[in-house]
Amino acid sequence: MTRWSIGDLAKASGLTVRTVHHHDKIGLITASERTLSGHRRYTPDEVRRLYQVRSLCRLVLCLEEVRLALSHSDSRLTAEVLLPAYSIARHRRVR
Question: What is the pLDDT along the chain (95 residues), one digit of tens a residue?
């Protein structure tokens, strides 16, 4: 199975390494593996979750709202997750 380094993941996702570290630190994504020297390694499922976080952030959700949205799904961005998130984002834009 392919494992991603934090640098490769940051480059592929368009985020900075610092942002990926922050998402890891606050529990939005978690590297399931570490090398002997302590470097994070991300699995395809964790990469998918980072892209979900990015997508929800683009809807103008704060990180806590992203965490709540993803905690109620089975790791897929389903209608039951996206519709309330879209509603929140739309309401913010109207203000």
Answer: 789 999 999 998 899 999 999 999 999 999 999 999 999 999 999 998 899 888 888 876 788 878 877 776 555 555 566 666 666 666 665 55
Rounded to two decimals, what is the model's pTM? 0.70
Looking at the domain 4-94, which fold is it? Answer: Multidrug-efflux Transporter Regulator; Chain: A; Domain 2 (1.10.1660)
Counting beta carbons within 10 angstroms of the beta carbon of residue 34, is it exposed (0 to 12), middle (13 to 18) or buried (19 or more)? exposed
Please report, for the chain, the start and end positions of each structural domain, with discontinuous segments joined by +. Answer: 4-94
